[in-house]
Write a structure and sequence with these properties.
323 residues; 8-stranded mixed beta sheet; 12 helices; alpha/beta; 8 strands
Length: 323
């Protein structure tokens, strides 16, 4: 396919018959509780780390929960940073579940070994949480290169703890989904084939089982963007994404059925737009205190060159490949 030299995403849409992207009904609230994290991964689009001070306040968490309860939001997807480090994390999980929502937690695994977090597997189990865990590779060298020295070994131990309480086992309702991000400036491989490789390697070598593997493209923003520019790979990577534009990925884009809530309560079309400060379009009210699903349906989605990351190849969303 032709490379779009200007990396103009709206132009790519028009070339394939789409005037713009519009949102459907909101079924998911993705809640970013802040940038505080016990890790500082190289691919992190949030630029999270141990010294970040952007943390969601209890008042904002309360407004989110009010919206979940009032509008019966189907899915609450809690992310960070390490979301478990936020003081409101427990109440976000428990009240969302009490309201009937399916709760997903984006879990980095190693947080289990920080003081005060060793009972997270049991907490997840007791509240029926879906765990989505970062595991960029089944080899220690690649994982540690992306996430830090010693992270692979801790991740293996954390996955064993999750298996021990029932997560990821055949027939279990406790979903443990792993996330693969490529190490470097390349697209993810085929999700189905890679999942089989993960299953064989993790079970044979470590006895670990899981539910599904999600392949997610590294987004050219924040920390990964800095790395691309530092290494002189930005233009090449953007050409790779743009040339792999796949119109079949459009229908499954996460921005069409979700709203991202920032640590300060502001609303965005997705977590990536949030990190770029790209708010909602069409004069839609922009904070969780003003949340009204009927006003969000049909809005135009704010677009940028980073959107090629979600439409390249098999597509990419918080739930992995989409096409």
């Amino acid at each position: 396919m032709k490379v779009i030299s200007s990396h103009n995403f709206p132009a790519a849409l028009r070339e394939h018959g789409f005037d713009t992207l519009t949102a459907g009904a909101v079924t998911t609230l993705q809640v970013n509780v802040g940038k505080l994290c016990n890790q500082a991964c190289q691919h992190c689009h949030v630029d999270a780390g141990p010294h970040r001070t952007e943390i969601m306040r209890p008042e904002t968490a309360g407004q989110i929960l009010d919206a979940v309860e009032r509008y019966r939001i189907a899915t609450v997807d809690i992310t960070g940073g390490a979301p478990e480090m936020n003081p409101s994390f427990v109440s976000l999980v428990r009240r969302s579940r009490a309201a009937g929502a399916h709760v997903i937690v984006r879990h980095n695994l190693t947080i289990q070994f920080q003081p005060g977090y060793n009972r997270l597997p049991e907490f997840f189990r007791d509240n029926g949480v879906e765990v989505v865990a970062s595991m960029p590779c089944y080899e220690a060298e690649n994982t540690d290169a992306q996430r830090g020295l010693g992270v692979f070994a801790k991740s293996i131990d954390a996955l064993r703890r999750l298996n021990a309480v029932g997560y990821g086992l055949p027939g279990s309702e406790l979903a443990l989904n792993l996330v693969h991000n490529p190490v470097g400036a390349s697209l993810p491989p085929d999700q189905i084939e890679l999942e089989q490789d993960y299953r064989e390697e993790l079970f044979t070598r470590f006895g670990i089982q899981f539910t599904h593997l999600y392949t997610i493209t590294n987004m050219p923003i924040s920390r990964f963007l800095h790395a691309l520019r530092r290494d002189g790979q930005y233009e090449q990577y953007m050409d790779t994404l743009a040339s792999a534009f796949n119109p079949r990925a459009i229908d499954g884009l996460m921005c069409r059925s979700m709203i991202s809530v920032g640590w300060d309560g502001r609303l965005y079309d997705c977590d990536f737009n949030q990190m770029l400060g790209m708010g909602l379009t069409d004069n839609v009210l922009g904070t969780i205190a003003q949340f009204e699903p009927s006003l969000l349906k049909g809005r135009r989605i704010a677009l940028g060159s980073h959107c090629f990351g979600c439409t390249a190849g098999a597509g990419s969303s918080c739930g992995g490949a989409v096409a």
